[in-house]
Design a protein that fits this description.
Belongs to the YciI family. It comes from Pseudorhizobium banfieldiae. This is YCII-related domain-containing protein. With 124 residues, the chain is of the alpha+beta class. The protein has one domain: Alpha-Beta Plaits (2-Layer Sandwich), CATH 3.30.70. The protein has 3 helices and 6 strands. Strands 2-5-1-6 form a 4-stranded antiparallel β-sheet. A hairpin with a 6-residue loop joins strand 3 and strand 4. It is flat and about 50 Å long. The protein starts with a strand and ends in an 11-residue tail after the last strand.
Length: 124
Amino acid sequence: MLYAILCYADEEKVFAWSKEEEAAVMGRLQAVQEPLAKAGKLGPTGRLMPTTAATTVRKGRDEPLVVDGPFAETKEVLLGFYTVDVENLDEAIAFSKELSAVNPGSTSYEIRPFYVFHPGSSPT
């Protein structure tokens, strides 16, 4: 089953890390990711740029509106994501717990099953 694991964090804290702090956290995260990657279960991962770099398209009355930022009303924002192809939710939870244990910037990890859509075919 495919799962998206969404990492939420206090972006002020994360983007204030020194280069040394950043390297240490990324090293610990890589160590957690390595077993899933070697097993072929870790898909694309990514860290999002700060919310100040975001653009949002919102549904308007007559046409879509393009606005700056995600307009989050909290310090906790979506910071990055993982895609994993694991046997079940328990395995995705275990991986998320490991990530959380080594990532001092994260506040939560949201896990959602997802389907891959390709034009002209049904979801897989």
